[in-house]
Amino acid sequence: MDLFVVLVICLSILIFLFLWNQRHAKGKLPPGPTPLPIIGNILQINIKNVSKSIIKLAEDYGPVFTLYFGMKPTVVLHGYEAVKQILIDQSEEFSGRGSLPVADNINKGLGIVFSNGETWKQTRRFSLMVLRNMGMGKRTIEHRIQEEALCLVEALKKTNGLPCDPTLLLSCAPCNVICSIIFRNRFEYSDEKLLTLIKYFNENAVIASTPWIELFNAFPSLLRYFPGSHNTIFKNMTEQRKFILEKIKKHQESLDLNNPQDFIDYFLIKMEKEKHNKHSEFTMDNLITTVWDVFSAGTETTSLTLRYGLLLLLKHPEVTAKVQEEIDRVVGRNRSPCMQDRSRMPYTDAVVHEIQRYIDLVPSNLPHATTRDVKFREYLIPKGTVILTSLTSVLHDGKEFPNPGQFDPGHFLDESGNFKKTDHFMAFSAGKRVCVGEGLARMELFLLLVSILQHFTLKPVVDPKHLDTAPSFKGIVSIPPFCEMCFIPV
């Protein structure tokens, strides 16, 4: 039998399986655009900007529809009511983590972010407990952020007001905060290990948001063996995990079972307590992956938001001036800002929230999955179905945020200029899969941004009118465009 005949037979089997799957699911899943065999709806989606395609498809198919990324169906939720119903009202049934092959290849279903079942429940519960013990949401972690903010300010002063790309420095600060929680130490901003780790984070964030990774996630079994940028992600993650393992080994040598000093210590003590439990979720592999989850999430999302935030403040100097006036009035120049200041700084608080709303950092959220067969509205969604929730449709809802495409802190202010809360603010997702480090990230964004604006005037290299604020890539995350700026000491 020659190769051509084998390929025809294999293709025929795949088409048969696809059509059978289509008939099997008919009448249960929500309607959507007609998929093609094997490739599904991939030709009907702009893989350079999936969230934009979802908005257009929602106009035709409504707030709930089905897309096929390859041969597997994905139920898409668009708009606040549908997203809220999935993430909050029926959060238990939709609390599974859908497959994301580019991450699954290394994480193997372990850790917090990409795990399921007992692994997820126990690891998440334990990690939240440890993070709170380490001071998340308390004064202890606030002091660490304040100290790191001063280090960041000193590093920015060394730019001497000249044009610079602040990407690395804005990554160093949040990276050091999370390092102090995980590893009990921080790094100097010139430390080669720190800069290499940040390089891996930055590189992976960009690659993960490219069209190639959208294709890889749709066809992992095929593209896994092809050359491509997914291999760079795998290599970078492997190197980061080697670094984490080295740190763990040093912790094992100095571990005091009665006096844990950081996240790794707490996990190692838990492993020791459960060493006779054959079904324990607290294993070395899970420790490495959990630390990587906390490390990466605690570094990259905050640094991306800071970078994008400074770009928006450059673009809108009138907003920056109002923030600095509020900083002068409430904080002054002679002390570090603190979280107690936030309640007296409604405009600054609104600006931080508007930055997160406008940049739409994780447009389609990380994929969820049904934990059992679920009746949702008039549909029956089988267990294990991937669920995509459009956070763009919530954060850019024109009814809640008039002119959602405009950067306007007024979206979070009432008529009296007081800060206005809204249930539509889902920048950290919502429900059972809400970001574990939300409290830490909120604190970092406020304290770091206020510290920068307390000490510097931001000066663009070009006329603010010519600054482009559209993301350079919009995939798993929204990547801000490259932008040089000057930090002029005040």
Automatic annotation (TrEMBL):
GO terms for biological process: epoxygenase P450 pathway; estrogen metabolic process; icosanoid biosynthetic process; lipid hydroxylation; oxidative demethylation; retinoic acid metabolic process; xenobiotic catabolic process. GO terms for cellular component: endoplasmic reticulum membrane; plasma membrane. This is Cytochrome P450. It is found in: Endoplasmic reticulum membrane; Microsome membrane. Its cofactor is heme. Its EC number is 1.14.14.-. The keyword Heme applies. Keywords: Endoplasmic reticulum, Heme, Iron, Membrane, Metal-binding, Microsome, Monooxygenase, Oxidoreductase. It is a peripheral membrane protein. It holds the Pfam family p450. GO terms for molecular function: arachidonate epoxygenase activity; caffeine oxidase activity; estrogen 16-alpha-hydroxylase activity; heme binding; iron ion binding; retinoic acid 4-hydroxylase activity. The keyword Oxidoreductase applies. InterPro entries: Cyt_P450, Cyt_P450_CS, Cyt_P450_E_grp-I, Cyt_P450_E_grp-I_CYP2D-like, Cyt_P450_sf, Cytochrome_P450_fam2. It comes from the Eukaryota. Belongs to the cytochrome P450 family. Heme binds at residue 435. It comes from Moschus moschiferus. It is an enzyme of class 1 (oxidoreductase). Cytochromes P450 are a group of heme-thiolate monooxygenases. In liver microsomes, this enzyme is involved in an NADPH-dependent electron transport pathway. It oxidizes a variety of structurally unrelated compounds, including steroids, fatty acids, and xenobiotics.
